[in-house]
Design brief:
- Strands 1-3-2 form a 3-stranded mixed beta sheet.
- Helix content is 63%, strand content 3%.
- A hairpin with a 2-residue loop joins strand 2 and strand 3 (243-248).
- Helix 16 packs antiparallel against helix 18 (418-437).
- The termini are far apart.
- The chain has 22 helices and 3 strands.
- The structure holds zinc ion (ZN).
- Zinc ion binds at residues 264, 268, 294, 297.
């Protein structure tokens, strides 16, 4: 059995390495690659993706997984080896249903589509990306149809990112949340808006980057196993557990942009950096789902990063860094500015109260596209109509509407958006559990130290990687299933105080 397990791990490590090499090409494409590299890069990523897929679906892996079944069953379910075999089998059974050439097409198309979006967005040229989106939709449908027997065509795509969830279960959670969120948004937006002009006074790029770095070092992001670079649309990526990188974009006329995207991506990165090192090279060396991953970024960005306690410590330092811009701005005014709630157009800039409305409407649009009840050519109009009905505003251009971010332009449509809202819900559920276990966390945060919180997250969430499913992890950590109650309680308390409602 030991020989067979070693053989399995060796084969899985090859696949892992190829995927990580592809991630490096993707990181380069989004950061430093000159435009002339786009075409060949698409081909290169497609080549490597195809080889990785061939290796991952080699029949020998299937045989090894079968041979190892008695060994797996002899172990406790939460033993590392049992989890490795279980998670590897799940991945294998998923991948063998997808033909290698489809994977290659998705990679090649994704690179070309991304390139088209980068050019089309500043030009407000939806017509230029329309054929790419049509192809993305076709490829996404083909991928979903590799998994026949679904209830909804989005189910297989959701399952890839958030194992165990379906369109129906996500809709149920969203309906419950929406019923509580919409009246809260209406009450808040009936109040005079917070004044956030202090965030738009002109802040040098280098100082912004340095300040963000100071905070995430304090959070516990390990720079000896990471780095930060600039990009169009911030993301986290990893090439091994020893090299977990983040990216950001800086606007000198908007202090929030780089700062909060940095805190956000550091949360994703600390999750990956905290995974048990012995999982390296195996399918366990990943966060367990999109939703749990997003809970970790949101926890640091919002629960911690937009808290009054954290800025009690960091705001005097920020004022010292930018005296001309912030000397006359009180902590209270700054705290209100970074928590301004407003109906807005751009999801990634949205405050934490209205954010989920953006996610829900995009989830619905994705389902409609996949079902075939909405055509790509009608997407901008449908987008604008939903923004008007859900958020009360319509985008003046497609650049700030349907082309606002990279999603849908990376080659796939569907299966990705639910994770953002699941993440918000879980961020509050996990944070409430950590604070209940360690009431000293609040006082530590107000002193700019995060050791107790980071250690709790590492022990309870990070180190397990993909060993437990989302449902298992939530149950293990919080003692109950996913619940919107802690999230709504958090929003009501924080914004109740801010807006005296
Ligand atoms: Zn994220």
């Amino acid at each position: 059995m030991e020989t067979k397990l070693r053989e399995l791990k060796g084969r899985l490590a090859e696949v892992f390495d190829l995927n990580m090499a592809n991630a490096l090409l993707g990181w380069d494409q989004s950061t430093y690659m000159p435009p002339g590299g786009a075409e060949a890069r698409g081909r290169q990523m497609s080549t490597i993706g195809t080889i990785a897929h061939q290796k991952a679906t080699d029949e020998e892996i299937g045989t090894l997984l079968e041979d190892l079944r008695p060994y797996e069953q002899s172990l406790p379910a939460d033993a590392d080896d049992a989890a490795l075999i279980r998670v590897a089998r799940r991945g294998y059974e998923q991948l063998v249903r997808v033909p290698s050439d489809l994977i290659g097409e998705i990679y090649a198309h994704g690179a070309a589509s991304y390139d088209a979006w980068v050019k089309a967005r500043p030009a407000n040229d939806f017509a230029a990306v329309r054929p790419y989106l049509e192809r993305s939709l076709e490829l996404s449908r083909r991928l979903a149809n590799c998994f026949p027997g679904y209830q909804h065509i989005a189910d297989p795509l959701i399952d890839i990112n958030d194992y165990g969830m379906r369109a129906e279960s996500v809709r149920a959670i969203f309906a419950e949340l929406r019923a509580e969120l919409v009246p809260l948004v209406q009450t808040i937006c009936a109040q005079p808006p917070a004044d956030d002009s202090c965030l738009r006074r002109g802040f040098s790029e280098a100082q912004q980057l340095a300040f963000g770095e100071r905070i995430i070092r304090a959070f516990g992001y390990d720079y000896s196993r990471g780095r930060q670079d600039k990009t169009h649309h911030p993301f986290m990526t990893k090439f091994s557990l020893g090299d977990v990188r983040i990216t950001t974009r800086v606007r000198e006329d908007n202090l929030s942009e780089a700062l909060f995207s940095t805190l956000h991506e550091s949360g994703h990165a600390m999750y990956e950096q905290g995974i048990e090192r012995s999982f390296e090279g195996t399918p366990l060396a990943n966060g367990t789902s999109a939703g749990v991953h997003e809970s970790q970024s949101r926890l640091w960005e919002n629960q911690v990063g937009r808290s009054q306690s954290m800025w009690q410590h960091f705001y005097p330092q920020l004022q010292a860094e930018f005296p001309a811009q912030l000397a006359d701005v009180s902590l209270d005014r700054f705290y209100r500015a970074i928590n301004k709630v407003q109906r807005s157009l751009i999801r990634t800039d949205a405050d934490e109260v209205t954010y989920n409305l953006h996610v829900m409407l995009r989830f619905d649009l994705e389902l409609a596209l996949l079902e075939g009840s909405l055509e790509i050519r009608d997407l901008p109009e449908a987008w604008n109509a939903r923004y008007l009905s859900d958020l009360g505003i319509a985008p003046p251009s497609d650049s700030d509407g349907v082309m606002q971010d990279v999603h849908w332009y990376g080659g796939m449509i569907g299966g990705g958006f639910q994770g953002y809202t699941i993440g918000n819900i879980l961020s509050a559920q996990f944070f409430a559990t950590a604070r209940a276990a360690h009431p000293e966390i609040d006082a530590e945060i107000s002193q700019g130290t995060f050791g107790t919180l980071h250690k709790w997250l590492r022990e309870n969430i990070y180190r397990h990687g993909s060993k437990f499913t989302t449902d298992e992890l939530v149950q293990r950590v919080t003692g109950g299933p996913l619940s919107i109650a802690p999230y709504m309680a958090y929003l009501r308390q924080k914004y109740g105080e801010l807006y005296q409602i």
